[in-house]
Amino acid sequence: MIRDTLNRPLRSLRISVTDRCNLRCAYCMPEMDYVWLPKDDVLDFEEISRLVDVFCSLGVDRVRLTGGEPLLRRHLEKLLSLLSAKPAVKDLAMTTNGILLAERARELKSAGLHRITVSLDTLRAGRFAALTRRGGLERVLEGLEAASSAGFSSVKIDTVVMRGTNDDELTDLIDLGRRLGAEVRFIEYMDVGGATRWRMDKVMSKQEILSVLARGAGPIEPVLEETSAPAQRYRLADGTLFGIIASTTTPFCQTCDRSRLTADGHYFTCLYSPSGSDLRSLIRGGASNQDLAEAITRIWTSRIDRGAEERLAMRERQALAEPGDLRKNPHLEMHTRGG
Ligand code: SAM
Ligand code: SF4
Ligand code: SF4
Fold first, then answer.
1. 272 pocket-lining for ligand 1 (C-beta < 6 Å)
2. Cα separation of 196 and 325, whole Å?
3. Ligand 2 atom 4: the closest Cα is on which residue?
4. Cβ within 8 Å of residue 304, ≥6 positions away
5. Ligand 2 site, CB within 6 A
């Protein structure tokens, strides 16, 4: 297993399988138009599978498919079958907005997906339509129902909490999670690439989220566990568990073992990295697995990233990028980089 300059191992790989999305969430894709990755640049499943083999040879044992919206990638189940057949991949997960999940949940499970996370920020149809600029709450709820009965080892609900937008629904979301057997994780609104409307006063901090929940759901106790997972977990009096991912106000860079591969094969060692490394050119230029392993080792062993900690230390914190920067460099986008 290789380690970076802060002794962090390379363990978790997030693969964005497409930069396209069927929603336009206000915190991720608020603009009117986007520059998409050229289709010919998108890695095919054999290329992704080969890169996963190389990553696994260096220590990766957790793989998450994301996007964009991963269920928009055609024949995704084929990729899942390739990845789930690898003994080195101990954990195979996916993050989806759930719009296309109801009809796919069983196939995804059969193809070998272990765990699924569905992003859902509100249970009110009008609010959902405004927040996503597309609508489809009913479909997401059907998707969650289908996922919870498909036999995944875990189903989670990820909720980005924004002040004045959905901070009055936290207990409702916990109630939904309890009913479906899905743990809810509240995520602080992050100033990542695509979040051009981000403002600090829209961020509900972990402490504020806990206060709101204590008022609505009663006493809360922290769950003590040693983990590199980003969520701090809590328990309600009835045993219901939930998590908070406090990337904005309490970053966890010190234990970050995650890196990201974009759909077109660019490799990023931090959500906030200004640039990545082009593994597609290497793989299409005839590099052997050994060459790829050496390139990734060079990148990881020189990694110094502490993006969220550096953002926290800034005195005046604003959105990371302007729409013009994103059009010039779509790799800065969260939906391209893979959340
Ligand atoms: N489309 C899929 C989905 O929404 O689940 C997968 C990709 S999306 C980029 C992955 C995750 O990033 C989602 O849970 C989303 O809520 C989160 N995300 C996007 N922008 C964010 C932001 N500005 N702050 C916090 N989380 C964000
Ligand atoms: Fe929303 Fe996910 Fe699409 Fe971003 S990629 S707009 S978070 S559904
Ligand atoms: Fe990891 Fe970068 Fe996120 Fe910190 S900001 S937790 S280093 S991806």
1. no
2. 10
3. 28
4. 4, 5, 6
5. 21, 23-25, 28-29, 67-69, 97, 119, 335
> Could you say which DSSP state residue 92 is in?
E
Is residue 66 lining ligand 1, measured as CB closer than 6 Å? yes
Which domains does the chain show, CATH number per domain?
12-337 (3.20.20.70)
In this prediction, the residues of the chain whose per-residue pLDDT falls under 70 are none
Q: How many CB atoms lie within 10 A of CB 282?
A: 18
Q: Whose CA is nearest to atom 2 of ligand 3?
A: 270
CA–CA distance, 195 with 312 (Å, rounded to integer) = 16
Q: Which two tokens stand for residue 128?
A: 């959902």
Protein residue closest via CA to atom 4 of ligand 3? 253
Q: What is the pLDDT of residue 127?
A: 98
Q: In this structure, are residues 169 and 122 in contact, taking their beta carbons and an 8 Å threshold?
A: yes
- Indicate yes or no: pTM above 0.90: yes
Roughly what angle, to the nearest 10 degrees, separates helices 170-180 and 206-217?
A: 70
Identify the pLDDT of residue 227.
Answer: 79
